[in-house]
Amino acid sequence: MKRRDFLKIATGSAGGAAAIGAAGARSSSTSAAVQEGEGNNTTSGNGTAENGTAQNGTEQSGDGEGESGDGELPGAGTTKTVTVGPGGNNVFEPETVYIQPGATVEWVWDSDGHNVAPDGIPDGASWEGHEPIENSGFEYSHTFEGPTGEYNYVCTPHAQLGMVGTVVVNESGQAPSGGGEGGAAGPDPHDMGVPFHPHFVGIATILMMLVSLVYTFFVLKYGESSNASAPNKQ
Length: 234
Hints:
This protein is α+β, with helices and mostly antiparallel strands.
């Protein structure tokens, strides 16, 4: 095979791979647009949306009472547990928890001689913690209705040993930038509006890699052969 013929084949293969990738991207973009349209077109013939009545171009919640529709705080009914002195270690586990307003934090003693003493809370907050020293098996809980911010606390007898903790009350109940308790999940590419489909992109990438490998092998093995020489080269 001459180099010119091989280059034509290689170019055609690479072009085909690129076309597959582009087709996949267009298909994904169209699908995303259709789904978004289906999700947003919720108004009925009389101008009333499924989740509320649209007035003056603004969709309102059904009864206008709070985020959950019945006046409850977003974190209501949620409970997170902190182990106090797990295994006899002078720590709170987890050291930091993230919750929404209205959620409850429960401290469970796993060893003796600890307390939960506030050590810096947001302005306007009234959390008093549980300062009496308690032993294994004791439980204490508190519902944080707000304000949002960091509620820092310590175990008074073991503060110098680093037995400190924090309850962060925020609107999402998650750590910023994906950190914190267990790590927040990364954003979905479809939620970010990225117009691609993993299958098509993967196939196109593999084809392009194969074409490159075959081309490299051909050049290394036959690059100086008489069949691959330029027409006027002696």
